[in-house]
Amino acid sequence: MRYDIVIVGAGHGGAQAAIALRQNKFQGSIAVIGEEPELPYERPPLSKEYLSGEKVFERILIRPAAFWKERQVEMLLNRRVVLVDAGARSVTTEDGGTFGYNQLIWATGGNPRRIACSGNDLIGVHYIRTRADADQLVAALDDVEQAVVIGGGYIGLEAAAVLSKLGKKVVLLEALNRVLARVAGEDLSRFYEAEHRAHGVDVRLCAAVECIEGETYVTGVRMNDGEVIPAQIVIVGIGIVPAVEPLIAAGGEGGNGIAVDQQCRTSLPDIFAIGDCALHASKFADGLPIRLESVQNANDQATLVAKTIMGQDLAYDAVPWFWSNQYDLKLQTIGLSTGHDATVLRGDLASRSFSAIYLKEGRVIALDCVNATKDYVQGRKLVVDRAAVDPGRLADSETPLRDLRS
After folding, report:
1. Who contacts 253 (Cβ-Cβ below 8 Å, separation ≥6)?
2. Residue pair 287/281 in contact by the 8 Å Cβ criterion
3. How far apart are CA 317 and CA 309, in angstroms?
4. Of 136, 124, 181, which Cα lies nearest the Cα of 157?
5. Which DSSP state fits 352?
């Protein structure tokens, strides 16, 4: 079977690419190939509202089944692409199916990075990347008294918050000297460490795991110092590995992701890549190539590719933004704080409503806003403009950020 557009990956990016193509009046045939049996759904709630039971699966579907049928988007689900033939313009799935394309959009995201220690394959070791992952975890919770979470990034912290709210004892292990070390400044890290501890989570930093113990089922986690932490489940959240092997094998440029240009084109003819797996130059990272693991990035790149296919001459320059919900805290981030050389705190940490504003060479490059949506909204322009603002004025929470200009 041949299609005008084949989209590999049925997550946020793949779904948005199909949506945006139809919104921009693309009349050709579209097929979306997805590894999971489900229609495209939102992933962020898996470690938050879906895990906690606040949202049922139907509420996190990106669009209902009827939407895709009405727009003639063919969903080829429960299939994994293992081969790309750029010369023949075709992809082959694990079950032997071959699908031709005129243009290909690669939107596969990534797979959870597996922990490299003995016991990593025991029953009770969980990752949270798919609906099936979350369902397996929920099904196991009734018999859990204590859980160990390995990884102090967003996924680990969100999972720890949900388990704590469900009345489970939680030990969170972070290998570095603070949580969120790769994505936030120290003030925010220390704030979240204190919040989790206040909710009963045993947060351990500089924690070195030796192995996961058990015979068939997890019984605990052994640390390098010999301590064994009892656990009935272990949740691992240590990042993802971009799912780009077939593109690299086909000759595509890349490594930690697949390299793309400003229109999200790969080095392979008529193949685009978007979302978590796309390695792209960002002006918000001083022009360096980065991968952004966010819904915003996936959706914006998908929309750009659709418009590019329809003949518009555009370049990707969307400002990165992220969010995380933990307990009653809503963290909203705008920009990238990587490489900052100064931090301004705006508001009061004790009030649990504040912003950390990150500067580089005197210019605003990012904000982390905790229960401070107004700062998040108004700070966007400061980040886009890389505004040079006096730190004293930034710190004055009585002065709206919209009133501050370089």
Report:
1. 259, 266, 267
2. yes
3. 18
4. 181
5. T
Contact in structure between 115 and 236 (CB atoms under 8 Å): yes
- Which two structure tokens, joined as six digits, stand for 388? 């040079």
Q: Which two tokens stand for residue 342?
A: 């100064």
pTM score above 0.70: yes
CA distance linking residue 60 with residue 3, whole number of Å? 28
Quick: pLDDT tens for 372-396.
999 999 999 999 999 999 999 999 9
Amino acid at 394: L
Tokens of 365: 């490059």
Q: Is 71 exposed, middle or buried (0-12, 13-18, 19+ CB in 10 A)?
A: middle
What's the mean pLDDT in 336-344?
Answer: 94
- The reported pLDDT for the residue numbered 406 is 55
Q: How many CA atoms lie within 13 A of 389 on its CB side?
A: 28
* Nearest C-alpha neighbor of 178 from the set 162, 156, 198: 156
pLDDT band, residue 247 (cuts 50/70/90): very high
| CB-CB contact of 371 with 353 (8 Å) | yes
Residue 339, token pair as written in the block = 């490489």
Q: With 70 as the cut, is the pLDDT of residue 135 above it?
A: yes
CA atoms within 13 A on the CB side of 230: 5
| Positive or negative: CA dihedral 31, 4, 81, 156 | negative
Summarised one tens digit per residue, pLDDT across range 26-81 is 999 999 999 999 999 999 999 999 999 999 999 999 999 999 999 999 999 999 99
Among 210, 232, 205, which Cα is nearest to 220's? 232
For residues 105 and 272, the answer to whether their CB atoms sit within 8 Å is yes
Q: How confident is the model at residue 15 (pLDDT cuts 50, 70, 90)?
A: very high
Residue 159 Ramachandran class (φ > 0 left, ψ -120 to 50 alpha, else beta): alpha
CA distances (Å), origin 120, targets 28, 50, 203, 377: 45, 25, 21, 42
Q: How far, rounded to the nearest angstrom, does the alpha carbon of residue 270 sit from its chain's CA centroid?
A: 26
Task: Tell the burial category of 55 from Cβ atoms under 10 Å away from its Cβ (0-12, 13-18, 19+).
Answer: middle
Q: Which of 44, 46, 1, 3 is nearest to 270 (CA)?
A: 3
CA gap 248, 38 in Å, rounded: 27
Residue given tokens 């992701």 in the structure block: 257
C-beta separation of 154 from 324 below 8 A: yes
